Amino acid sequence: MTDPVSGPFQPCFSSIPPITLDDWGVPLVFRRHCALWEGTARRIDSEGRCVDRDRVRVEIAIAKDQYLQTNTVRIDTPGEIVAQYHGHFIDGRLVFPLTDEVVTLAGEKATAFSGIAWPISDHVLLYSGSRSLRGVLTHYNEVITLVSDDHRVRTTQLYEQGEYRHVTMIEEWRQPQQPIA
To answer: Which of 5, 65, 124, 168 makes a 20 to 30 Å CA pair with 151?
Structure first.
């Protein structure tokens, strides 16, 4: 019997999905995210209200086992903010080591930032991170689904001091590569 469902939408519990690694020990699903992505982020409060909406851009690059992500929010506005995140792969997991050199997407300096991301299939990633901002410990968990090679959806839960605050829903599309001049 041929399964008509493909990509990230395989039937649950039919089998444990395989994780494919490259020669550097990097899960291929991470390489599939290497691109320039643009879309919209919507932050929803704990009452279900949309509290803000921003255009976002994420550029992801991996060289050997070194990871670089550049996030831009509020694209083409006076409030545009760019933040970079550096990580590396250990045992098939992306590790963001503990650092105080992080600027939040709101433009504030955070301390004690660290995180880890890992694949659960060749289409879905999980990410868990933490940071301290103005003395408040913040944790976040994110599911990143590669819907197709050109479309991805991210959903992030945010907790402050252990209390749920909001969820951010981000839908993004791969942008065409710009020709090198």
So the answer is: 65
Distance (Å, whole) CA 68 – CA 71: 10
Q: Long-range contact list for 153-158, CB < 8 A, 24+ apart?
A: none
Global pTM value: 0.86
The DSSP code for 171 is: E
List the structure tokens of 14: 């039919």
Question: Domain limits of the chain?
Answer: 28-174
Decide if domain 28-174 falls under CATH 2.40.128.20. Answer: yes
91: left (phi over 0), alpha (psi -120 to 50) or beta: left
Structure tokens at 179: 């020709």
Confidence of residue 9 (pLDDT cuts 50, 70, 90): low
Please give the average per-residue pLDDT across 119-140, as a whole number: 94
- One DSSP character per residue, 37-89 reads EEEEEEEEETTS-EEEEEEEEEEEEEETTEEEEEEEESTTSTT-EEEEEEEEE
What's the Cα-to-Cα distance from 39 to each of 51, 52, 67, 80, rounded to whole Å? 17, 14, 21, 14
